[in-house]
């Protein structure tokens, strides 16, 4: 697994035109913008504005009904990475709320806290050490994530539009990266349940940030989703139900 796919993508999108691992930031990829028909239990709560939070009790009950699989090295690395990446999103949004005082940042930061807590349930389930344990906002065990946090907060500082752009960018790339992580799973329905709902949350949050960006006179060209996939998301309704 490309452990730092999302990290590299975000840094590339803000600094250069050359992708990580031989990829290119100027070559958007086609990624499914909507979920496949699902029979999974509903483990999230969604507001009319699209803020999507995990119901931790419902998730715990749903995970208890699923068998515990074996973890490959790439699946293990993916869980550790997603634990801190979801924390990063919430930390960045809290920083941007304190700076720009737009409520969407605070609301979605709260949702992101439940996202990283959902990944923590999987870490506990597989008895993996928590890389985020004891780390305050803006602090990360992974040095690349620390650098990414610093870059994102700097990018979102100059203006409200810059902050909203960062919000759209994080959510777009999260959708892209989770799509890759899902393809790397091998018979782990518990991880798939969490990842699919994380991706649904990112689609909803992308819609919310993009709407605010347009309302404030901004624009956005997708870097990692195809234009069609991006348009399908932002032109569709808030998603509820299973991921």
Give a written overview of the molecule.
Helix content is 59%, strand content 2%. The protein is mainly alpha-helical and 243 residues long. The protein has a single domain, classed as Ferritin. The protein has a two-stranded antiparallel sheet. The chain is globular, with a radius of gyration of 17 Å. It starts with a helix and ends in a 9-residue tail after the last helix.
Give me the secondary-structure topology.
Blueprint: H1 5-15, E1 44-46, E2 52-54, H2 56-64, H3 73-100, H4 103-125, H5 143-155, H6 160-183, H7 189-215, H8 227-234
Antiparallel strand pairs: 1-2
* CA-based gyration radius: 17 Å
CATH superfamily: Ferritin, core subunit, four-helix bundle
DSSP E strands, number = 2
Largest sheet: 2 strands, antiparallel
The helix fraction, in percent, is 55-70%
Overall domain count: 1
**Mean pLDDT across residues:** 88
CATH class value = Mainly Alpha
pLDDT < 50 runs, ≥5 residues? 16-27, 32-38
Q: How widely separated are the two ends?
A: 23 Å
Q: DSSP helix count?
A: 8
CATH-derived topology: Ferritin
Structural class: mainly alpha
